[in-house]
Specification:
single chain; alpha/beta; 7-stranded mixed beta sheet; globular
Length: 181
């Protein structure tokens, strides 16, 4: 699908294998690595990414939910990693939708500021943070659409979904454009 000059792409796969300018990491607020996407990015990207996260943590104390920071891509095929912190799902009445949307938008802004033309996202907060993917997908796609309409920096915004089931949920959300918030 095209939004302005930007192509939105959905695919199932391993985000650490994506050849893009920026890979987005679903990080924790301490920028200390972890499991899931975060652990995979640190394992494949190597120690340089963690060293830069350590420096960011020393400088600003981490990264709050909805915000983003950037490091090198280390040994990943991407030049940079944007680390963003999504919200922990607590039922949806504690600002989770806005924090999730901000995680996507701030990642896009930061990547664009660093000259990125291509970016790959995982499904932020839908793993261990428990955000229901059926609710998260329209927010993610809506943030990407809104950014692409306002800013033509990106040639392509990819969503790399770990499972075929997750891919199907994002495909249905994209097909049902009314649900993309």
């Amino acid at each position: 699908m095209r939004v302005g000059k930007t192509r939105l792409l959905l695919k199932q796969g391993d985000i650490t294998r994506e050849t893009v300018d920026v890979i987005v990491n679903a990080a924790n607020s301490g920028l200390r690595g972890g499991g899931g996407v975060d652990g995979a990015i640190h394992r494949v990207g190597g120690p340089r990414i963690m060293a830069e996260c350590d420096a960011i943590r020393a400088r600003q104390g981490g990264c709050p939910p909805g915000q983003a920071v950037i490091t090198t891509g280390g040994q990943l095929p991407a030049q940079h990693v944007v680390h963003t912190v999504g919200p922990i799902w607590r039922g949806g009445a504690r600002g989770e939708p806005d924090l999730l949307r901000n995680a996507y938008l701030n990642s896009l802004r930061l990547a664009a500021e660093h000259g990125a033309k291509t970016i790959a996202f995982p499904s932020i907060s839908t793993g261990v943070y428990g955000y229901p993917i059926e609710l998260a997908a329209p927010i993610a796609l809506g943030a990407a659409r809104d950014f692409a309409l306002a800013d033509s920096s990106f040639e392509e915004i990819r969503f790399i979904l770990f499972s075929l089931g997750d891919l199907g949920i994002y495909q249905r959300a994209l097909a049902d454009r009314k649900s993309v918030v």
